[in-house]
Amino acid sequence: MSVDKQKLLMAVHDALVEDLRRQLKGQQSAAEGATHAEARAETKWDTCGLEQSYLARGLAQQFEKLSAQVEALRSFVPPDFAGRSIGIGAVVETDMDGYKDLFFLLDCGGGTEVDVDGCCVTVITPESPVGAALLDRKQGDRYSFRAGLEGKILRVE
């Protein structure tokens, strides 16, 4: 069964936008905690406010990075990979010990799972173990990673 890549891309985009909303809410909460009157240090060992400010800064940096990735995803047009080696934008169906998976290889959103037309698709990145194992392979190839786990590439779109 073929997956509509534009629908898939929109579903991933929407999931990442929801992640952005959650991150923004968390960053705002941490920033409020860092500046709240009760966070003021009472002793030199009291670092609650300082820790909250570090957390807020880290969350803000994650938000900026994901925001840039979501913006790039908005203009990304995934190519067709039929008969070609797997790369960014490929939808790949695999079989590992009788268990079939459907992956969407992207530069961002690794681990995001979306349902499109009844198909559960997991986003992977080239940095992930599965993404690295699949990259540059073709339909029909076998792949392996981590302690000898092996699979077969059934379909590449």
Structure description:
- The chain has 157 residues and is α+β, with helices and mostly antiparallel strands.
- It has 2 domains: 70 residues; 66 residues, Chitinase A, domain 3 (Roll), CATH 3.10.50.
- The chain is built from 3 helices and 6 strands; from the N terminus they run ααββββαββ.
- A 6-stranded mixed β-sheet has the order 3-4-2-1-6-5.
- A hairpin with a 2-residue loop joins β3 and β4.
- α1 packs antiparallel against α2.
- The protein is elongated and about 65 Å long.
- The mean pLDDT is 86.
Mean pLDDT: 86
The overall number of domains is 2
Strand content: 15-25%
**Major sheet summary line:** 6 strands, mixed
- The helix-strand sequence is HHEEEEHEE
C-alpha termini separation: 11 Å
Helix content: 40-55%
Poorly predicted runs are: none
Gyration radius, rounded: 20 Å
Please give the number of β-strands.
6
Tally of contiguous helical segments: 3
Question: Which class of secondary structure composition applies to the elements?
Answer: alpha+beta
Oligomer: single chain
- How would you sum up the global shape? elongated
Strand order of the largest sheet: 3-4-2-1-6-5
